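Can't attach files on this board, so I'm pasting raw text. These are the components:
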Amino acid sequence: MSESSAASTSIQVLSRMFSLLDTLAHEGDSVSLKSISEQTGLHPSTAHRILNDLAVGGMVERSGPGAYRLGLRLLALGNQVRARLDVRELAVRPMQELHRQTGHTVSLFVRQDDDALCVERTVSERSGVQVTRVMGLRVPLASHAAGKLLMLQDSTTVLQVLAAAQGLRLESLQAELAAIRQQGLALDSDSPDPLLQLAAAPVYDDQGRVCAALVLNAPVARFGQDWQDALKHTAARISASLGWTHR
DNA sequence: GGAACCCTTCAAAGCTATAT
DNA sequence: ATATAGCTTTGAAGGGTTCC
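---
Top answer:
Structure tokens for the assembled complex are below.
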């Protein structure tokens, strides 16, 4: 058995499944088994068997004899992903307001695997405060205030792995997370610039899970209780717009 | 009737978990 | 580390259906 696949996985059938779904997505409408087989390079029997199982799971629908299209279950799954991404749009205005109030940079971080990924950041311009999409700024979870917030719901097993990856003791990481949980805010004590203080507040989704972290970066001298409260309040506003009602 | 296509069956090969 | 058993996946072959 030999097959070359650009997106190879450890389980061959999964690569093939991705290939089949990509083909159906590319075509948009119903596609015949023969056409799918040609486009994916899979033997028709192999394509048929996988499509059959995908149809059982609702990922694919039979639009007629020997014709397939994407299934409605993908819509449900896609909606879940979209709900996660919406936080970026909903956060824009509150981020601008917090920037105007404090005069300092506000960022939004989301989790991606074992890293915290910065996705939006405010920028001061002549026309006012703008929020720009940031590409590629990522930090290990345990090394950043935002990342620590995004670890709050992790199991001990996961925390153990993440702590080990950063050369931290599990107990001290857990104690830090407990303090953050109680405070409702994460403060970075070891900022590269001693004059700057970085604080992060949690953004909750409609299920009450931390889905993002709102970060304010400001001079230590000016970072009082009022700005901490403003940061928490802004994060709470974004959470509320995502459907989270604090209980 | 013949060609083209879809779908199912089944033997073989490959993979994975478990025992030693 | 190796052997083994059981499970999964594959592709060829062939039956059934549709279309011209």
